[in-house]
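WARN  no MSA supplied for this record, continuing single-sequence
INFO  ligand: magnesium ion
INFO  echoing inputs
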Amino acid sequence: METTILDQYKTIVMILNQKNEIVFANQAFLRKTGYSQEELIGIKAENIITGFDLIYANKFGQTYIKTKCGDETPYWAEVSEFDDGNQTGLILADIKMSGLDPLTKLPNRYLFTRHLQRAIDKAKETNALLAVLYMDLDRFKFINDTLGHTYGDLLLKQVSERLEKSLGSGNMVARMGGDEFVFLITDLHHEKDVDQRAASVLNAFQESFHLKETEIFINPSIGISLYPYDGDEMETLITNADTAMYRAKKNGHRKIEKASLDISAGSFEKLMIENNLYNALANNEFELHFQPQINLKKKKVIGMEALLRWNHPDLGTVPPGEFIPIAEETGLILPIGDWVIENACRKISEWLDAGIENIKVAVNLSAKQFLQNDLAENIQRVLKEYSIPASCLEVEITESMMMYDIDSATNMLNKLKEIGVHISIDDFGKGYSSLQYLQKLPLDTLKIDRSFIFDIDTNPSSKALTNAISNLAHALNMKVIAEGVETEKQLKQVKTLRCDSVQGFYYSRPLSSEAADQYLVQFKGRGKMEKLTS
Ligand code: C2E
Ligand code: MG
Ligand code: MG
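INFO  complex generated
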């Protein structure tokens, strides 16, 4: 090969013999590392290229070059064989020029997808396994909004450093944008090896982060997809890992979920659920359960959240987390949502007839429902049909539903407010609301997400954030409900932080319609609320 032409390149190029010893290094290489050609000739590549073996095996990867003065600079390496395999060319692209995220110095989406594509191509040839891990940070947006962008940036940098350290070389971590990171894991021999890799990513979050004077604990949610099981194309693998991550997020904190178990990843189960869902309404398979909400000052039940249950003769009880996303996808959520509103109103009227007053029933609205122009009119019609005051009904929407199209959301919320129903924001703190909008919207209640309450007595940042939400809500004239209170310790904490009400297993799990009646009657008989043991 005519090597002088390689000296014209700005990219680092080196050529290795069969023993992986350097036989040539171009001028760019010499300039950037400080070595002379003579010093390099005959040196084994692994002595100056970190993780060379793996890069050689994978044909690409992130690496560090040890410069003469001992610095380690990051590069992207691509390996190609020529001369009938007698020589190997190693091209090292300056990471900064070719798709590096400026803040974290990690590869960006572009670089990641390029390398993933190459890895897939190679895995197809060699029947190898690959994993894509999609990760995001719980409540990052919230930290960003409350502490400011400087802190958010600091956190992202520190997280990136830890993530890089947590990976073996040859694997890759990239920043997709915001607080989303994605990993390409290639050193897998067995499917279950990925668990270990995911665990070491989680471990990187074991210790707190120090942002100037503030100490923050943060948890990631991770979704995993495996080639070839969860897809054999780049897009599919990324999407499925992303979907699994959303499920992980929904299930709580520090969670890892696999796409192969994910029903929304297009599996057989999903099809089963979808098929059966079409008949569920007609077959009367839905049921509402009710979970009490207790006001801490008044020690009274002030509301019940209506939670949908699907009892299928063969599938058993399918949890809402599994069928609601499918109902959303298929549009079935609209008739199902109508059914929920209607049945919640029926329950309200039953309770009013029985003399149980001042109980609001909260229904969860889905995104599709919330986008229906006639939602407010429909609700009003049902309220009228059952002759119940609008103030007995509360709708729960999520932050993402508001933020999706803030103008339409504002319109809809104003309409709902006009007819007199209460409005609460569900799972608050976990989503992406811009705090700025909160004061402009006619909201009554913030429901603090369960993930804050879960470790409120052990994690200072959960406590600090709950405190911040509580103060914020009160400053904006809203009430606060703490979701998912399970223990006395948690209850104590949320009391101290002036949450108005709680909802959670500590007081009661969601109850069947009859059990809810009993709960209310029992509670009425005792006057003030205390923990009822069944
Ligand atoms: P959500 O609206 O945040 O409802 C609260 C969920 O947390 C319920 O799960 C409830 O059982 C659970 N939960 C309550 N207290 C505790 C606790 O102390 N510890 C723990 N670990 N969990 C607790 P569920 O019933 O499985 O509902 C899950 C989600 O499904 C709901 O979250 C809501 O987003 C959705 N969903 C439920 N019913 C409906 C509905 O009628 N329509 C729509 N669109 N979504 C619904
Ligand atoms: Mg809810
Ligand atoms: Mg909730």
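The domain at 282-526 is CATH 3.20.20.450 (TIM Barrel).
INFO  checksum written, moving to next record
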